[in-house]
Amino acid sequence: AQSVTQLDSQVPVFEEAPVELRCNYSSSVSVYLFWYVQYPNQGLQLLLKYLSGSTLVESINGFEAEFNKSQTSFHLRKPSVHISDTAEYFCAVRNAGGTSYGKLTFGQGTILTVHP
Amino acid sequence: ETGVTQSPTHLIKTRGQQVTLRCSSQSGHNTVSWYQQALGQGPQFIFQYYREEENGRGNFPPRFSGLQFPNYSSELNVNALELDDSALYLCASSKPTGVDTQYFGPGTRLTVL
Fold first, then answer.
1. Where does the pLDDT of residue A103 fall: very low under 50, low under 70, confident under 90, or very high at 90 and above?
2. Which region, left, alpha or beta, applies to residue B30 given φ > 0 means left and ψ of -120 to 50 means alpha?
């Protein structure tokens, strides 16, 4: 069984400040890792993913996440946030292999609120 | 390339009724997954369909069932609705080639009274 723990349910920050949203996972097999963002009353949008290779992955809008296998973590960071980054962020894992491609296991979510 | 669409946007039902939610997959995607997102929670995997067959299921009772059609649109059916079924239902489509990204629809908000 897999599980994902997002360590902060809410993170308030001021505009242009750095932010880190923490994610830890538990799995007995190798995993792929994802961060999704959900804006109010919308579905999930993929922010970035780690499949293999470089442990640091980046998104097009300035977010980055680093896969740390020894600490089983995949924390999301942004050096300078904008008001428009206000949303709920979900960390998710999936088996690396197998036939159940669709089974993402999500964390509880972290609500990021950026204040002016 | 069209995105994933879902209908209806909102739905209100009463306990014991049955409901059908619909999803149209992104063009070229033949795998669809359904998730239930209760208020304040992360999405929970219900099941996945590939080429019209269920090939993965989460911890949901049999009253949650699905269909996938040859055009890769799909349905989620829930029988004997319970109050706890109130949630946002999300579908996600993908291509089962390696690790392909799942693209989510906007969801259907189901309220059971």
1. confident
2. alpha
Residue B101 in this model has a pLDDT that exceeds 90 = no
pLDDT tens per residue, range B40-56: 899 999 999 988 899 88
* Measured CA distances, B23 to A63, A81, A83, B101, B108 (Å): 30, 34, 32, 17, 9
Farthest-apart Cα atoms in chain A, separation: 46
Contacts B6 to A, Cβ<8 Å: 43
Do the beta carbons of residue A76 and residue A21 sit within 8 Å? Answer: yes
**Chain A nearest-CA residue for B99:** A101
Q: Which residues pair with B65 in a beta bridge?
A: B77
